[in-house]
Amino acid sequence: MAVYDVKRNIRVMCWNIQSSNSVCHGNKFEDLDFCKIFEPYPIVCLQEIRQSVKYPGYKSFNNTRNKENDGGVCTLVRHEISNGIKQHPCKISDIVVCRLKSTYFNLETDIFIINAYVKPANTSNISSGKTGREQLQELDSFINELSPKGTILLCGDFNSRIGREIDYILNDNSGADSFIPIPDDYVPQDVPPRNSKDLSTNSHKKPFLDLLINNRLQVLNGRTLGDFQGELTCIKPNGSSLIDYFITSSEHSKLISHMKIKEFTMFSDHKPLELSMNLSVADPKVIKPLHTSFDKAPPHY
Q1: Do residues 230 and 198 make contact, with C-beta atoms less than 8 angstroms apart?
Q2: Pairing mode, strands 110-117 and 150-157
C-alpha cells in the first residue's frame, strides 16, 4: 500500500448572502439555484447569515448574534478536507476563524482563514455597543497576536471603502536616507500596485488601512490574476462599491493562483468572490495499492 500527496486547487468562496431567508426565496439553502452557486467550493465563507447554517456534505462553523436578527457569519468546510481544518477560538462578534493545518496541507506554517462581517459606519451592536470601527480595531489586535502562529487569509464584507489609497508602507526601506522609524531587521514589502473601480472612501477607511499596514497584509482585489481592475462587489440602487475583500499575508501570496469577482445574482446585492490556492493534501485516507499507483507498461513489454 502507498500513501501519496493529492495535488489540489483549493477554491474558497466569500459571499455576503444577506440572510439565510428572504421574502422572495424563503430558505435560500432549500433553493437549488442558490445552492449551485456555492456547492463547487470546498470552503465557503458566508456573511450576514442572521441564523446558524447547516448544509449536507459540509461541516459548519457559525458565529451569530444572540439577540439580533442581523449580521452573523458561517464558514462551511466540505467533509472530505475537514480533518485538516479546525476552528480557532475568537471572541469578536461576527468573526469565524478556521485553521488549515500545515501537516495536512503540506505547508510550512498553518493558514488561518478569518471570515469577517464588519458593521456599516454609524451602526452599533445593541447587545455590546461595538461599532464597526471598534470591530476593526479589535480585529487588528487579534491578527497581531495570531500572525506569529501562521499566515493570515482574511475575507468578508468589511463595509470599508478605501478607493485607491495606499494600503502598505510606501518606500519602507531602512537605509540611511529613510525618514520612516522602522526596525533594522524590517523586511520591505514587495507589493504590486492596486487598482479599484471604486474611487470613494468612507469613515472605515482609516481603521481598515491601519489593520492592513499594522499586520503587513495586502488586499488581493485589484492586484491579483483574475481581478486586476478591482471590480465592484456591492451593487445597490443608491450606488455601487467595493467593500468585500480577500486579504492575505504577503508570504502567503505565492500560494494564490487567482481570484475573481463572480457574476451578480438575484440572491444578494453582494457579488460572490472566488479565491484559488495551490495546495497539496497529505491525506492518510487516500491510499491506493502499489500496483495501481503507476501507469501500466505498454503491451509490447
Answers
A1: yes
A2: parallel
Residue 169 contacts residue 183 (beta carbons within 8 Å) = no
Of 234, 259, 264, 286, the closest CA to residue 11 belongs to 259
Find out whether 236 and 244 touch, Cβ atoms under 8 Å: no
Contact 85, 101 (CB under 8 A): yes
Whether 295 has a pLDDT exceeding 90, the answer reads no
For 162, the grid coordinates are: 478605501
User: Distance between CA atoms of 260 and 231, rounded to whole angstroms?
Assistant: 9
Which DSSP letter does residue 134 get? H
Q: Record the cell numbers describing residue 105, joined without a space.
A: 496541507
Phi and psi (nearest 5°) for 218? Answer: -130, 135
> Which tens digits make up the pLDDT trace of 240-271?
999 999 999 887 888 999 999 999 999 999 99
pLDDT category at 287 given cuts 50, 70, 90 is very low
- Beta-sheet strands, E only, within 135-271: 150-157, 217-219, 234-236, 239-241, 244-249, 256-261
C-alpha cell of residue 271: 457579488
Q: What DSSP state is assigned to residue 75?
A: E
User: Rounded to whole angstroms, what are the CA distances from 1 to 104, 284, 289?
Assistant: 19, 11, 5
**Percent of the chain's residues with pLDDT above 70:** 81
Is residue 92 a contact partner of residue 141, using CB atoms and an 8 Å limit?
Answer: no
Q: Decide: helix, strand or coil at residue 142.
A: helix
Top pLDDT among 299 and 136 is at 136
Helical H segments across the chain, by residue range: 32-38, 102-105, 132-146, 205-214
Q: Can you give the pTM of this predicted structure?
A: 0.86
